[in-house]
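Deviations from the work plan: none for this task. Representative record:
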Amino acid sequence: MTTYNPKTVTDQSGSHDPVKVKVRHLTKAYDELLVLNDISFDIRKGELLCIVGPTGCGKTTFLNCLTGFAPLTSGEILIDNEPGNLFRHNIGFVFQEPSTIPWLKVWDNVAFGLKIKKLPPPEVISRVEKMLDTVGLRRFVDYYPRELSASLEQRVALAREFAVKPDLLLMDEPYGQMDIKLRYYLEDEVRRIQMEEGTTVAFVTHNIEEAVYLADRILVLSQKPSTINEEVAIDLPRPRRFDAPEFVAIRNHVTEAIKWW
Amino acid sequence: MSKTDPTSEVVGPEILSQRMGRGSPSPSSIELSTSAQLAPPKDRGGSKSGLLYFFHQFLRREYLSIISLIVFLLAWEGVCYFKIIGPYQLVPPTTVLKVFILKLTQVNPDGAYLWAHALSSLGLALLGFLGAALIGVPLGLFMGWYTRLNLVVRPIFDLIRPIPPIAWIPLAILWLGIGVKAKAYIIFLASFVPCVINSFTGIRLTNPILARVARVHGASDFTVFLKIGLPSAIPMIFNGLRLSLNAAWTTLVAAELVAASQGLGFMIQMGRRLARPDIVIVGMLTIGVLGALLSWGLSKAESHFVSSRRLT
């Protein structure tokens, strides 16, 4: 059996890749409840960072702090070396909750972000059409979200966020609703889109296998009040195989790191 | 590493190999299940015969409403025919119909044709209603969206809200005289309140996740209001408009008490003064039918805006 010796990442300036997101001493408390406790890390440009941790450890809260939906209690988050600004930074966010817009048909849902960004109509059409094929929604363009299954609905949200070609893509347990076949397919799609566009991705998941399969680096959070238990860099070659001994070793290592009981 | 590998049990080798290569499952092969099958309609009462079958057919749902209406009219006619209620209190439906037709071409005894009364009332009610909708709906929406505006307007609104519109009549006459303006103002007040409250509630029900979807792509607060808040509120806005229209129409008679020379409310008043229950009833029924038509028109407009497919 292969054992895994993690290269714990301590020197954050050691990498050659420029930093996309810089998190310093991030603390977030809701009244008395301390959720994130003095967290510091970087997300490098073009990196796919998976964030794992126990349920309720503040993974979603972190994403909300990053976009400014939730004000920070203290510390700072810099995107491209400046405070996050939704008007300037091109961010995509795949929510955990259903986030399709119920009064728009599938086509207009996918076009929603592009229209907000006021892209020229021909560009909107070409991007939407391409995305519909990518996520397999071609047959459903004239449906309303309520007429779709949960997994189809989530694909609409994915297509909408992919279509804006964000340079920072935040995904909050995006594949929780999906069956294994679709999940595998869309995991590969995220990776492909990320490589094509050079997107930086922060991917929150509770599925350790998914994290090891996708991530360049995994951030393991502890239980509330959350700190970083460990950062695990994964340099397995791609495509990765679940049954490869190295894969299993890393997966087990992350599982051990996440354990709070 | 003494544990068995769970993945090798969960994931079969063929899926794993699929995962590896370019032969990933195509998303288009994942179909929407639409296998909802309805049971075939039962052939009810098919074996029955004679009178019983006839009776069964009669009590089928589509006939029930018509039957109840006919029974009601017959009872009404009977009450008058057998003089249970005298002709100066109530006239039978046949007379009402006669007077209705007569009033289309005759100005007596109240001074105007029926359609002139109806148009006058309709104009008045719509004036008040549209004014209330044009001011009340945006006010409610903005109050719901901008907390500060709500804090400023709310106490005044809450103070005025419980005052019945009819209580405004004396002030309305003092301020606006006894013309169309005073009457439209009363109707405006009556329809204003439901517009504001329902629009307010509607926009407050906006799903915060949807607002975030817009915000994350750089939408300004006003863009979020237009693209997410307003569409979210539309069902409740229409709810408010329906209540408003109702309020406008029911306040009509009260408003037309304010020195009118035309209008259905005026016609009813004249009918009372002249001890002509036929005129009163024709006026009342015209108000009822027109009110129902207005509601119907509004729900037509609503179904134009709100697709039933997204409201399940």
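Residues 221-255 of chain B form the longest helix (35 residues).
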